[in-house]
Amino acid sequence: MLTIIAAASENNALGKNNDLVWHLPNDFKRFKALTTGHHIIMGRKTFESFPKPLPNRTHIIITRQKDYSVPEGCIVVSSLEKAIAACPENATNFIIGGGEIYKQALPFADSIELTRVHAVVDADTFFPAIDENEWQLTHDEFHPADEKHEFAFTFLTYVRKRQ
């Protein structure tokens, strides 16, 4: 099972200058809870945005760079198809970014775990549009802005419609 997990604003903004454009502690907690113990697939720039590999997850980094050096336990591949092939079958594996990887992964994904941030922000990286003809919203959970969360947000779960 391949799940895309992301946080995107109302205008589908993901980030700017290889960084997030908001700080939502409850989104980080959800991301950690869902991805811990699983394989996570990402592009090189997303991997480089972390200070160190995320604990208790197997990182699969997609890059065209030859001899790209990563810490022990991380896997480097040259394409999304090779990244998916490196994941265990019959397990939930996650696509965690960035924008181009999300776009490439959308046709392969079984579900999307999206945190919709209720704001319009300036960004240079965007999440692809979700086609309502292909995806069914199965869960939504609204969270208002508060002292720890500058913006209101909604956790959304989509599953691919079966044809």
Description:
With 163 residues, this protein is α/β, with parallel strands linked by helices. It has one domain (2-160): Dihydrofolate Reductase, subunit A (3-Layer(aba) Sandwich), CATH 3.40.430. Helix content is 18%, strand content 36%. The chain has 4 helices and 11 strands, in the order βββαβαββαβαββββ. The strands form 2 sheets. The chain has an 8-stranded mixed beta sheet with strand order 6-5-4-7-1-8-11-10, with helices on both faces. The protein has a 3-stranded antiparallel beta sheet with strand order 3-2-9, with no helix packed on it. The radius of gyration is 15 Å and the shape is globular. It starts with a strand and ends with a strand.
Major β-sheet profile:
8 strands, mixed
CATH topology: Dihydrofolate Reductase, subunit A
User: Over the alpha carbons, how many angstroms does the gyration radius reach?
Assistant: 15 Å
Question: Structural class of the secondary structure composition?
Answer: alpha/beta
Helical run tally:
4
Features:
one-carbon metabolism; EC 1.5.1.3; DHFR; 8-stranded mixed sheet; oxidoreductase; 3-stranded antiparallel sheet; Dihydrofolate Reductase, subunit A; alpha/beta; 163 residues
Task: Tell me the layout of helices and strands.
Blueprint: E1 2-9, E2 13-16, E3 19-20, H1 25-35, E4 39-43, H2 44-48, E5 58-62, E6 75-77, H3 80-85, E7 93-97, H4 99-105, E8 111-117, E9 125-126, E10 135-143, E11 153-160
Parallel strand pairs: 1-7, 1-8, 4-5, 4-7, 5-6
Antiparallel strand pairs: 2-3, 2-9, 8-11, 10-11
